[in-house]
Structure formats: structure tokens, C-alpha cells
Amino acid sequence: MKIIHFLSQAKKLATGLTGIDGHLNPRPVLLEIYQETLKVLSSIPDHSVYRQATETLTKQRQMIVKENEITEDIENKIGCGLIEEVIFQAKDELSLAKKMLEWKSWEDLEVHPPAGQWEYFRKK
């Protein structure tokens, strides 16, 4: 039993980051996550600032992943760490997009803030 465990651990790639194992084939995973994120974002109204910003970023990163076969090139062009970290970021963004859809963050506030609430840093 110990031999099987040892062999399964040997297959994992090292990233040099504690708790983050290397990924054998990250491109398809990233493309799938980006596609799912864009699908969720399409359910949010066009005028939502969150949708506009996240959709732009996701499409930009998706294009980088599609155009580059080499993992190091993807990492350098995205500029957010190792590809495994980019996968974590993409998963987190997908999770947030689902929550934003659930929360309907584009709708008006139920209770409007009092006048002048956000002006306390302005000089009078």
C-alpha cells in the first residue's frame, strides 16, 4: 500500500509553492473555466460594471491561452504567477461570477444611503 501511495505522489509535478501541485495539462482546464465564466457572465445584464470588467479580462486571458501552446509563455503574458495560480484565480472568478448572479448586484439598493454618506473625506 505504501508503494502505491509513493508512486501516486511521484506523478505530481512540483511548483515550488507549498500546497500547490503542478498541473500536467493546464491549457484545456483554463479554457474550460474561462468558457464557463463567460457563460455565467452572459446571464448578467450588459450594463453591469462587474460583467464588463470581468468579461474583458476573461476574454483577454482566454485569447492568450488559445494563442500560446507553451505554459511559460502563458504565464509571462498573463503575468499573475505560475499557471497553477492562474487556474486558482480563474476558479475563484467563476465562483464570484456565480455569486454575483445570485446576488443580482446590478439592481438598485433596497435601502438607499443617506445623503453625504460618502463625502466625509472631501474638504469642506
TrEMBL record:
Location relative to the cell: Mitochondrion inner membrane
A Pfam family of this chain: ETC_C1_NDUFA5
GO terms of biological process kind: respiratory electron transport chain
Sorted UniProt keywords: Electron transport, Membrane, Mitochondrion, Mitochondrion inner membrane, Respiratory chain, Transport
UniProt key word Nucleotide-binding: no
GO cellular component: mitochondrial inner membrane
Keyword hit for Mitochondrion: yes
Membrane topology per record: Peripheral membrane protein
Similarity comment: family membership: Belongs to the complex I NDUFA5 subunit family.
PANTHER family given in the database record: NADH DEHYDROGENASE [UBIQUINONE] 1 ALPHA SUBCOMPLEX SUBUNIT 5 (PTHR12653:SF0), NADH-UBIQUINONE OXIDOREDUCTASE 13 KD-B SUBUNIT (PTHR12653)
Name of the molecule in the record: NADH dehydrogenase [ubiquinone] 1 alpha subcomplex subunit 5
